[in-house]
Amino acid sequence: MEVLSSTEAGAFRPAVATEKLNERVLALIEYLGGALLALDVAIVFASVVARYFFHEPFDWAEEVASGLMSTMIFLGAASAIGRSNHIGIDIVVALFPKRWRSFLDALGSWLTTIISVALCYGVYALLLDTHGQTTSTGLPRWWFTVPVFIGTIFMALLAILHALRGPARATFSAFLVCVAIAVVGYYLNTTLEDGLSPLGMLAAGAIAGILLGTPIAFALAFGALIYFLLDPSLPVFVWAQQVTSGAEHFVLLAIPFFVLAGLTMEVNGMSSRLIELLLRCFGHVRGGLNIIVILATALFSGVSGSKFADIAAVGGVIMPAVRKTEGDENETAGLLACTAVMAEAIPPCVNLIIFGFVSNISIGGLFMAGIMPAIVMTIGLLVVAIYAGKKIDLEKVFTADSPRRPLPALIVGAGLTLAMIIMIGRGVATGIATSTEISAFAVVYAFVIGAVFFRELTWRATIGLFMRAAAMTGSILFIVAAASSLSYALTIERIPDQISSVMVDFGHHYGALSLMLICVGIMIFFGMVLEGAPAMILFGPLLTPIATQFGIDPLQFGIVMVVAMGFGLFAPPIGVGLFVTNAMTGTKMHNVARPMMKYLAVIAISLIVLSVFPEISLWLPRYTGVSQ
Fold it and tell me: Is the distance from CB of 322 to CB of 328 less than 8 angstroms?
């Protein structure tokens, strides 16, 4: 056994203490986040039941549920800091020699810490500023601000702990560099005649943060914070207010609910039963595994709403089957990434909800408008997948360790899963409930099936599901919140108006179709570098009115933009979604890129077709009467 010297032990103890404190804080906030999500589900479900069956809705339900979600977002963001789960782009950092990477990583960690501490201070100032105010239903404002303030305290604490976990020399050097940059910036701003340009420093701060590999949400918030600090007419608590209110909307509550429903399907046996049924139906035909990947993703995306949840659910079952049958795992991983792009058009996709929310488009209309485009992409992917695929030996898949389930029980189990998907689709098509209300019913349905019918859902697993869903969606919606603060700063500078003028001139010269294709290119590019939510928050409200001005239907435009964003998100070489797919499937991007090109070509052709033929998107909303 190796014995540490006193010097080594002394250096080791603080790291161990920091790690233990980090884990204890994480456990606390993840339990709190899960409890808040459970309470939200109960409130929304009870409110829907009270309205539809007793005709006495809870007037306070939406406001309280939104406030609880706001707190959950910051707890989820704190959890993602502690577990290093925030989405960032580290390609530029990876280009540097190894001896520089620890320093650059530390620099990004201190940047995250700066934002977390500033947000904590800003929310405290906001709490003081709103003292004595009430909400629209007469509740004290501080009831909603204090929990958010507590959430930002946890964010700041975990950000500091995360920054201190790196090598001591790199951590200290990066801290000194941050201090030096702040001092130089303050000196230049006070000595230059006109000071530093707030807009220029906003762009510099956000871009520098992204290139450093800082989580995208914090890089965007950093750019906005610099802008507010350099403009004396804007107090910091206004920046904090924009961040905290950016995702505090009842309609966005559908996102954690649908993600929770999808995770529940994965744990309670619904997803495995459906995939096994597909495997036994299509496994013996040419390209059978490819067919199953496409169909399973299409079906799961109709519940989970989260493309990464779909990849985890389908990939977790399919990839072992691919390896057992000695198939090409890189081919399967590439197809899985492309089916995630296709799933962007399938309701209740998270990004459809976000785009509809920020662009003021009917979310129900977008749900209906996405179904036919998804079918078009599915058919295209199936044709290529069957052509490129091979037959497999099912006997290698079903072994003594993973035997076949009895067929009657398998059909019943898969039927219960399909019933859930039909329930969601029917609810959207008829408009009998909002997407948030439908998602609450989906959660309850998934839990009842798992606990009562399959009996594979224990109390411990249930608690874990709420914790996972709260942490996952908290980090997703924190991106929405941070991007909202950046969007607010850009609006003050009238950047949207300037871009709008350029785009309108372009449309007048080259026509509506050319304008649509330019917008597609914009969303693909920013889908690569910003991830989905920020790209849509920044460009959705900007581009949608311009497209409408040239006769492009908002529903068609929304579907095309969301799919284009997904194309960029999963496209090599820098698509963040592709890196996530690689991590979940155990593959490497450089091995996956080549076999996935034929599937990406299908998506690219589909984008052009959807842009040229609006009826593909608009027929079903018009037929069902669910419009904007």
Answer: yes
Distance (Å, whole) CA 311 – CA 296: 10
Whose structure tokens read 């750019």?
223
Q: How many Cβ atoms sit within 10 Å of the Cβ of residue 451?
A: 17
Residue 106 phi, psi (nearest 5): -65, -35
d(CA 323, CA 318): 9
- Sequence-separated contacts (24+) of 546-549 with Cβ below 8 Å: 546/500, 546/503, 546/504, 546/507, 546/515, 547/512, 547/515, 547/516, 547/519, 549/504, 549/507
Residue 48 phi/psi, 5-degree rounding, is: -65, -45
- The pLDDT tens digits for 42-90 are 999 999 888 888 888 788 888 889 889 999 999 999 998 988 887 777 7
38-49 per-residue burial string, b: 16 or more CB within 10 A, e: under 16: bebbebbbebbe
Residue among 422, 193, 398 at smallest CA distance from 303: 422
Q: pLDDT, tens digit, for every residue of 492-534?
A: 988 888 888 899 999 999 999 999 999 999 999 888 877 667 8
In degrees, to the nearest 5, what angle opens at C-alpha 153 toward C-alphas 149 and 157?
170
Confidence of residue 3 (pLDDT cuts 50, 70, 90): very low
pTM: 0.83
Is 243 in contact with 221 (CB distance < 8 Å)? Answer: yes
Among 80, 220, 87, smallest CA distance to 155 is for 80
User: Where are the chain's structural domains?
Assistant: 9-245, 251-325+371-473, 475-624
pLDDT given for residue 384 in this prediction: 94
Q: End-to-end CA distance of the chain: give it in Å, rounded.
A: 69
